[in-house]
């Protein structure tokens, strides 16, 4: 069983995603989008507490990125797990994040 996906606000504009980002956790999390969607114009999403990512998790982040873009907001991902980096590269969509400086590799 997957560990539920959780979203918490750390500081103004800085959020942390924790748990597993996979096909089991994405649908219930996404269905609550209106409850957790930030209002700030620039948001940094820390992924250091994400334990596992699959293609459904990557797709959710891509949709989230587009949602922010459509709202005129900027989304930056930091502490990106290696597993997600590989998925983005293999899917040839890593440029969607790196092309506009939204993927930050902070250790």
From TrEMBL:
Superkingdom field: Bacteria
PANTHER family according to UniProt: BLR2341 PROTEIN, INTERMEMBRANE PHOSPHOLIPID TRANSPORT SYSTEM BINDING PROTEIN MLAB
Entry protein name: Lipid asymmetry maintenance protein MlaB
Ranges where the STAS domain occurs: 17-107
UniProt source species: Enterovibrio norvegicus
One Pfam family, short name: STAS_2
């Amino acid at each position: 069983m997957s560990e539920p996906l959780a979203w918490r606000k750390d500081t103004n504009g800085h959020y942390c995603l924790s748990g597993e980002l996979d096909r089991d956790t994405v649908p219930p999390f996404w269905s609550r989008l209106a409850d957790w969607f930030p209002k700030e114009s620039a948001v940094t999403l820390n992924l250091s507490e994400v334990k596992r990512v699959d293609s459904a998790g990557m797709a959710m982040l891509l949709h989230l990125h587009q949602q922010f873009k459509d709202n005129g907001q900027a989304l930056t991902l930091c502490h990106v797990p290696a597993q997600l980096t590989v998925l983005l590269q293999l899917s040839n969509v890593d440029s969607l994040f790196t092309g506009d400086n939204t993927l930050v590799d902070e250790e």
